[in-house]
Design brief:
This protein has about 375 residues and is mainly beta. The chain contains 5 helices and 19 strands.
């Protein structure tokens, strides 16, 4: 049954047919069903070596939301990655106290940057999500917590402020590194633990009808299992546990601009990381004391036409990214050129409807340790409903 489900979803997306085209996503006045997914093909290209390509049902996500009343609602998302892995992406209750104030509690997406909250394939350029949103902002990043959100429509401002559990920095081995950044520290709500709470915040301002500007922040400590069941009077055990923790202060800024057929977006994320010298010695890893990443992209819709009742469009795009997970290092750790990456992308998106897309791009990657760019051809189909 599971295999049949995936085959059907792949077929629908390839034909440009979303579930909303065939049936209503709102099954009642209270229950809403939706989802998104994408299937990718990644082919390394080299004049010297031959490489197998990778074909992957990257993810299929199903959303179920339920409205208990005008004030209380539930949002859940079930994510299936690479066919065999199942996760819960979101599961939270929201209670609207005022039109501009909602309380939330549960498993929530951390509001940092553009992609982490809005990552449905038809909404962004490129087959894969930006590289910055993989290593520094470990999309899809979600944690358990509670907080407030709301829209001040009179001034075009949206705000979010949450108290959440932090990254798993150490559970017998160090989870952070120069190569992986924060990615392996995501707890994903899967039997998460907390040794100290962290703060996540974001504000977005609709400056003009065409321009949205966002500021994000994340502050706190990584979590460590070494704090579990140790005596508060045991100074040696406390010192050992302290060595397995890093302090994280991460800030980001972004914009999204759309005007007629042209659109552009950009993001910069900077993470200052404290206690890395002790952490690296204790966990035998190579985490930098600061990470910096940014990207700028632009696209232009060159073609619009109708076919079989669908609005079809073609939009070429280009993106440049820089990521340096050893932007600075502490102690005896020497910054590695292999962690200072430049990536260039050029391709196009063909929307088969607003909710179904065919994408392709050519990706060029080069670190400061490389003599030339490596090349990858990416092709994918994506959908949302």
């Amino acid at each position: 049954m599971r295999r049949l489900f995936f085959v059907m979803m792949i077929g629908f997306s390839a034909l440009g047919i979303s579930a909303q085209d065939s049936t209503s996503v709102e099954t009642s006045s209270r229950l809403t069903i939706g989802g998104y997914g994408h299937v990718d093909y990644n082919q390394p290209i080299s004049s010297d070596t031959r490489s197998n390509g990778k074909l992957d049902v990257h993810r299929v996500v199903l959303l179920f939301s339920y409205k208990f009343s005008d004030k209380l609602n539930l949002v859940t998302e079930l994510e299936m990655e690479h066919v065999s892995e199942v996760y819960v992406e979101q599961a939270y209750l929201g209670y609207k106290v005022l039109p501009s104030l909602e309380l939330r509690a549960g498993l929530m997406l951390v509001p940092f940057g553009i992609i982490n909250e809005y990552h449905e394939p038809p909404t962004f350029f490129g087959v894969e999500r930006p590289l910055v949103d993989n290593t520094i902002i470990p999309t899809t990043w979600r944690e358990i917590g509670f907080g407030v959100t709301g829209n001040l429509q009179s001034i075009g401002l949206k705000y979010q402020l949450y108290l959440v559990n932090g990254f798993n920095g150490y559970d017998g081995s160090g989870k952070f590194s120069g190569s992986g950044g924060f990615r392996k520290g995501r707890q994903k709500g899967a039997e998460s633990y907390i040794s100290s709470p962290n703060i996540s915040m974001r504000v977005e301002h609709l400056t003009t009808p065409s321009l949205k500007i966002g500021l994000s922040g994340y502050f706190g400590n990584s979590q460590s299992t070494l704090f579990n069941k140790i005596s508060k009077d045991d100074a040696a055990a406390e010192a050992k546990a302290d060595s397995s923790v890093v302090n994280i202060a991460m800030v980001g800024a972004d914009y999204q601009f759309k005007y007629k057929r042209f659109q552009s977006r950009a993001l910069v994320a900077y993470a200052n990381i404290g206690n890395t010298e002790q952490y690296n010695q204790f966990a035998s890893t190579d985490l930098g004391s600061a990470m910096l990443g940014w990207y700028v992209e632009a696209g232009y819709r060159v073609l619009d036409f109708k076919a079989a009742g669908h609005d079809i469009s073609l939009s070429p795009f280009a993106r440049v990214e820089r990521i340096n997970t050893h932007f600075s290092t502490a102690g005896n750790l020497t910054a590695k050129d292999s962690y200072n990456l430049t990536a260039l992308f050029a391709g196009f998106s063909m929307h088969l409807s607003k909710q179904a897309v065919f994408k392709t791009d050519l990706e060029f990657r080069k670190t400061e340790a490389d003599s030339e760019y490596s090349k990858i051809l990416n092709i994918g189909v994506g959908f949302m409903f």
